[in-house]
Amino acid sequence: MIFLQGSEVIFKVALSLLGSHKPLILQHENLETIVDFIKNTLPNLGLVQMEKTINQVFEMDIAKQLQAYEVEYHVLQEELIDSSPLNEVEYHVLQEELIDSSPLSDNQRMDKLEKTNSSLRKQNLDLLEQLQ
Predict the structure, then answer these.
(1) Which stretches are annotated as coiled coil (predicted)?
(2) Which of the chain's termini has less CB crowding within 10 Å, N or C?
(3) 132 vs 126: CA distance, rounded Å
(4) Are 16 and 53 in contact (CB under 8 A)?
């Protein structure tokens, strides 16, 4: 199958096995027991289950689904960029860049970046305090 469909078949087999054993996997409480289940139980499948898995893999067409997810991802990224308002630090940095259009020396750029960095750190600390 790998020679026929390439490395995509590995993902298809994994999806098929995880999908067909989903109820059993969801019964486990943590990742360690899930990994043990996958390592110990799935390799001991019977002939009927193996044939069922192979048939599912041949019937599975994930290219369309992946393309749909890719389009949805790009749309969500664009919406996120368009809808995210500038925070105070970004707003001030943008204002400074607009006002001061003269080229900066390396030292000036370094100072500007250090100021921005310190204000972002302060903002992060403030947000952490609010969470606690």
Answers:
(1) none
(2) C
(3) 10
(4) yes
**CA distance to 37, 38, 86, 116, per residue, from 18 (Å):** 11, 9, 42, 46
From the list 12, 11, 10, 36, the residue with the least C-alpha distance to 25 is 36
- 108, 123, 1: which is closest to 60 by C-alpha? 1
Task: Give Cα separations from 119 to 9, 15, 128 (angstroms).
Answer: 49, 45, 14
pTM: 0.46
Q: How many CA atoms lie within 13 A of 62 on its CB side?
A: 15
- Residues 15-70: pLDDT tens digits? 888 888 899 899 998 999 999 988 888 778 788 888 888 888 888 877 777 788 88
Beta strands in the chain (DSSP E): none
Assess contact for 12 and 57: CB atoms under 8 A: yes
Place of tokens 């994930």: 62
Q: Which residue has the tokens 């020679």?
A: 3
Q: Is 21 exposed, middle or buried (0-12, 13-18, 19+ CB in 10 A)?
A: middle
